[in-house]
Amino acid sequence: MTEPATDAPPSGAPAYRRRSRSAGRILIVVGIVVVAAVIAVLALVLNQGDGDRSQPSGGGAPAAGPSELTIGLQLEPTNLDIRSTGGVALDQILIDNIYQGLVGLAPGSVSDFVPVLAEALPTVSDDGLTYTFTLREGVSFGSGNALGAQDVVDSLTATLTEALLGAPAAVSSPDERTVEIALEQPNSQLLWHLANRPGLVFETAYTGDLANTANGTGPYLLEDWKQGDSIAFVKNADYWGEAPALDRVIWRYFTDANAAVNAAAEGDVDVLAPVASSLVEQLEGNADFALEHADSTDVFTLAYNSAKAPLDDVRVRTALSKAVDGDAIIAAFYGDGKALGGPITDIEPAYEDLSSINAYDPEGAEALLEEAGVEDLELTLTLPNFYPADAANQIVSDFQAIGVTLTIDEVEFATWLSDVYSAPEDGSPRDFDLSYINHAEANDFVNYVTEGYYFGAVNAEAKALFESSVASTDPAEAVDLVRQAARVVAEDAPAKWLINYTPTNAIGVHVHGFPASNTNSRISLEGVTVD
């Protein structure tokens, strides 16, 4: 448990700058212990935008003296090697701030691409097979060594694999400022990959251990990592772009939601992202903070093991989906979210309102179970034990109303990964019944059409539509094909999309330009300032 900072920090812990508090500071009720929701697992979308990441966006004027920002988060990375370690905890703080790629995402967007280490978005051949980038001049890594075309070639060769793209790709550098990516077949998702983990550029010659060091081209450098407590960044004085307004950033981790809220109230964090839904009211009326809902692609997902009887019957999956009272789920999240009828959220280009599909209808659910010849059904729901139980308990009640007994099995996240997410090494089918998890990544529809993913069976029609989208060279057509595929998936009911979680962030009134979108998975500090 991470306790709130005191005036005399314990030995070995960093000293946190405590801002002055307003006279109207609220009192925190310490009896509530709720661990708020966290994230897990990977991403992909289309659309091209212009702009230049060397210019900051928004924000107020930076403080005259050294400026420091402390951000309270939930999920601490297990190590810092973003090349090989899964989970959004690394993406949340490292992408944009320390590591960069040829292109990135515009602040606040999950689909608008902007040049970063490239001078401009790529020139694309008419057949969609060749992407040509011109590198910026004057870019260096945190090590002090200059970025070279070979660093880009080596980094992208390692990630743009046939497994990722569906066909081989060749990355080359005709000269020191040019990088070419040659595809064997068009791929409408390529820019998305380049703007995310697969596109990050690393220094080939770097010999440090990236599990506990960091060496990127971004505006910040890793200063310190006190495991179990915090990670500190400092301004990169040699950054190639516009100098960041913040001199130092501390990412402070709280495993206990109540301790996090107490730390905010005591002035020990400037931002809390997010505030546990059940504790938001504890910060209401606090003049030091603005409470803001962040748009997000977070989707709390009730997944069915559609490779296991009787969940291999679409009628059973549909019945379970119809049994869930969506309004009650939103209430279980204390209003921190929106109804969602499919796997794509409303801030992604391929969104369509599918809430009418498998909407709440307990009578219809009972009829489908009867039609499928299923009675006295007993199922187990496996979920990581850091989630609040409110929504899961609501599902238990909803299922009970249609004669289905649901047992909750709360496990460590590592156990969820091994028992649900990962396929058995011997090739046997996964044995779980239902899973409850937050899929936080944008553009992750590919998971629903990927053989071997933990949902089980793949709908052939949806897979064909998605493959056509990837192969399309027309951006509008590519988006429309994903939209069609999402409708097919929604009707096939591999999961019930319980809620599009829109977390409440507590942002100090002295903080300006803090991101208002997808803060559970990617927090760019570009344009963030403090008074």
From TrEMBL:
<feature type="domain" description="Solute-binding protein family 5">
    <location>
        <begin position="113"/>
        <end position="421"/>
    </location>
</feature>
<feature type="transmembrane region" description="Helical">
    <location>
        <begin position="26"/>
        <end position="46"/>
    </location>
</feature>
<dbReference type="InterPro" id="IPR030678">
    <property type="entry name" value="Peptide/Ni-bd"/>
</dbReference>
<dbReference type="InterPro" id="IPR023765">
    <property type="entry name" value="SBP_5_CS"/>
</dbReference>
<keyword id="KW-0732">Signal</keyword>
<dbReference type="GO" id="GO:1904680">
    <property type="term" value="F:peptide transmembrane transporter activity"/>
</dbReference>
<keyword id="KW-0472">Membrane</keyword>
<keyword id="KW-1133">Transmembrane helix</keyword>
<comment type="similarity">
    <text>Belongs to the bacterial solute-binding protein 5 family.</text>
</comment>
<protein>
    <submittedName>
        <fullName>HTH-type transcriptional regulator SgrR</fullName>
    </submittedName>
</protein>
<dbReference type="Pfam" id="PF00496">
    <property type="entry name" value="SBP_bac_5"/>
</dbReference>
<keyword id="KW-0812">Transmembrane</keyword>
<dbReference type="InterPro" id="IPR039424">
    <property type="entry name" value="SBP_5"/>
</dbReference>
<dbReference type="InterPro" id="IPR000914">
    <property type="entry name" value="SBP_5_dom"/>
</dbReference>
<dbReference type="GO" id="GO:0005886">
    <property type="term" value="C:plasma membrane"/>
</dbReference>
<dbReference type="GO" id="GO:0015833">
    <property type="term" value="P:peptide transport"/>
</dbReference>
